[in-house]
Specification:
Layout: H1 10-28, H2 48-56, H3 64-85, H4 87-108, H5 117-127, H6 139-155, H7 164-180
Helix pairs in contact: 1-3, 2-4, 3-4, 3-5, 4-7, 5-6, 5-7, 6-7
Length: 183
């Protein structure tokens, strides 16, 4: 019996590959590429590059540890979400979370954004909805919300250079998508 590889989760796998490609190309260009994948708090929406950064910031990563940490969760949880919601809806949820998180960060914070952490939190919350019937609130959703989002609120007290807001918004987006999306 011959085995062959299957590209089983096209959106999630493509996203992970894109994040990895951006990171390694940035390193080969002397770290000249990452500004295209960083959302800055001073944004001129008349500049097409600023619009690009509203989405592209989810593909940039500061360090190999940052990339590997995020991609571990994306690749672990993402295929489950993509299987339940489909590739098209998964892509829409990913892009919507990026834009919402980016716009709200620009409006309310003085920090920039870079990385897939908001997407990771969206996926974490969404995976808690994988075996839910209509009209039910999954206990796993409540526990995940308390653990992950609660932890981020507590971590937000300390200025550690990490945007807990992006994590929280990713979790909120995941909850909204989970309650409003059908399989």
């Amino acid at each position: 019996m011959a085995f062959r590889l299957k590209y089983n989760s096209p959106v999630i796998l493509s996203y992970a590959l894109l994040c990895s490609l951006v990171f390694f190309l940035d390193r080969f260009t002397g770290k000249e590429l990452m500004p295209l994948f960083t959302l800055y708090n001073q944004t001129n929406f008349m500049n097409p590059l600023a619009i690009f950064r509203l989405v592209s910031h989810i593909a940039g990563h500061i360090s190999l540890d940052h990339l590997l940490g995020n991609m571990t969760f994306v690749l672990l949880i993402g295929p489950i979400v993509e299987e339940k919601y489909g590739s098209g809806l998964t892509l829409i949820m990913l892009l919507t979370t990026a834009v919402i998180t980016g716009i709200l960060n620009i409006l309310f914070f003085q920090t920039g954004l870079i990385g897939a952490s908001g997407i990771v939190f969206m996926l974490i919350v969404l995976v808690s909805f994988t075996n839910v019937d209509n009209g039910q609130i999954p206990l796993t959703f409540i526990l995940i919300a308390m653990l992950f989002v609660g932890k981020e609120i507590l971590n937000g007290i300390w200025d550690d250079g990490i945007s807990q807001f992006a994590h929280i918004m990713g979790g909120i987006c995941g909850g909204v998508f989970g309650f409003t999306s059908k399989k």
